[in-house]
């Protein structure tokens, strides 16, 4: 074991003394330092790097370059300087809780189903673990119960450095073939895995393992979870959200799902009614225009894109224009959502030509195109009439 890596000898090290051996510019306004020993964990094995300070200078990131640990600093430190390293302990301990919790869950999945952990990442929001096999929601609940029982049992988390003969006799998890000195993390009755990360000393320190969700992923599943303090903070935030919803809906906390479902059904019924009413209004609006072979441009306030398409379709199907453009203002008076419809001309070509001239975007089919123009009403009307006339003339030839 490399004794200069203090996070392995004493994972609970919060501060330490060291000597700056090297310090050079990174080329991006920071400095890269090498220490004679370090308590800062470098990113690896799915675990993020530690941060903190060296003699008050911020340690921005920590990475390995071969066998050397590189500390990215916000300011330079002179080589030979005796420095005090102070680790952001809350971040480190959070990572230790997440990592040990992940080992417990992954070990139980492997023991029960034989699946491998094929992906692991500790993100800023949650931990993700990928397994190469299916798990049902019911099985997931059982796994969560078993994982938390391992926490309640408060067994020691052991770190082993077996020799080759001992290693060959161990049944341990590993993502790749390993050579040389192998670091094994063992959690009795839960997991045994080759690992380079930092862990709590006893499973009870994990506090809680909470699975947030699961999705199907690459033939297996991806599980999202949180452990310890981060799980507590997440629960607190979720409870605040639920309480707010409860107050907004005037429903007891346990009845919020039913209240939301009722609100959703009421909204769908209202949208259906509004759709029918708008259909009647658009039909009456269409009757105000005579049949014509010339293009028709119509500007209407307060329509969404579905309604814009609906009105445009009615107008061109009832021959109120050879080409129909319906627009409704978006953000301000110089942005319009539009729909172009016609039964005789290709609207893809017209949309492309108008988008080019009006800083627009969008597209569609030969019968109808839609999108947004970033221009004033006068410019939109002018370009529509010009490009429509050109399209009809070209089509006639």
From TrEMBL:
GO terms for molecular function: alanine-tRNA ligase activity; aminoacyl-tRNA deacylase activity; ATP binding; metal ion binding; nucleic acid binding. It holds the Pfam family tRNA_SAD. SMART domains: tRNA_SAD. One of its GO terms (cellular component) is cytoplasm. GO terms for biological process: alanyl-tRNA aminoacylation. Keywords: Metal-binding, Zinc. Signal peptide: none annotated. This is Alanyl-tRNA editing protein. It comes from Enterocloster citroniae. The lineage of its organism: Bacteria, Bacillati, Bacillota, Clostridia, Lachnospirales.
């Amino acid at each position: 074991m490399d004794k200069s890596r203090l996070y392995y000898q004493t994972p609970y090290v919060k501060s330490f003394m060291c000597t700056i051996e090297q310090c050079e510019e990174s080329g991006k306004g920071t400095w890269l330092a090498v220490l004679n020993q370090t308590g800062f964990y470098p990113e690896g094995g799915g675990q993020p790097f530690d941060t903190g300070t060296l003699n008050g200078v911020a340690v921005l990131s920590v990475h390995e370059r071969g066998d050397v640990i590189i500390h990215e600093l916000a300011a330079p430190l002179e080589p030979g300087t005796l420095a005090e390293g102070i680790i952001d302990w809350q971040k480190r301990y959070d990572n230790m809780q997440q990592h040990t919790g992940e080992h417990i869950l992954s070990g139980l999945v492997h023991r029960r189903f034989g699946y491998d952990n094929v992906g692991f990442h500790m993100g800023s929001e949650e931990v993700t673990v990928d397994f190469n096999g299916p798990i049902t929601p019911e099985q997931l609940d059982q796994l969560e119960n078993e994982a938390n029982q391992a926490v309640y049992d408060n067994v020691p988390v052991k770190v082993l450095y077996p020799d080759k003969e001992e290693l060959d006799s161990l049944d341990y998890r590993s993502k790749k073939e390993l050579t040389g000195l192998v670091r094994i993390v063992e959690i009795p009755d839960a997991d045994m895995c080759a690992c380079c990360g930092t862990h709590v000393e006893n499973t009870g320190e994990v506090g809680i393992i909470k699975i947030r969700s699961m999705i199907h992923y690459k033939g297996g599943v991806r599980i999202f979870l949180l452990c310890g303090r981060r799980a507590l903070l997440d629960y607190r935030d979720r409870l605040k959200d639920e309480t707010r919803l409860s107050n907004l809906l005037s429903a007891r906390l346990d009845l919020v799902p039913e209240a939301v479902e009722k609100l959703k059904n009421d909204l769908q019924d209202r949208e259906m009614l509004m759709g029918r009413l708008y259909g009647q209004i658009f039909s009456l609006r269409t009757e105000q225009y005579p049949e014509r072979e010339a293009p028709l441009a119509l500007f209407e306030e307060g329509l969404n894109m579905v309604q814009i398409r609906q009105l445009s379709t009615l107008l061109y199907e009832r021959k109120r224009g050879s080409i129909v453009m319906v627009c409704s203002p978006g953000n301000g008076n110089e942005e319009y959502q539009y729909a172009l419809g016609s039964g005789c001309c290709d609207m893809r070509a017209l949309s492309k030509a108008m988008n080019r001239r009006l800083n627009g975007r969008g597209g569609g089919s030969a019968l109808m195109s839609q999108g947004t123009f970033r221009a004033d009403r006068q410019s939109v009307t002018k370009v529509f009439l010009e490009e429509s006339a050109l399209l009809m003339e070209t089509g006639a030839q």
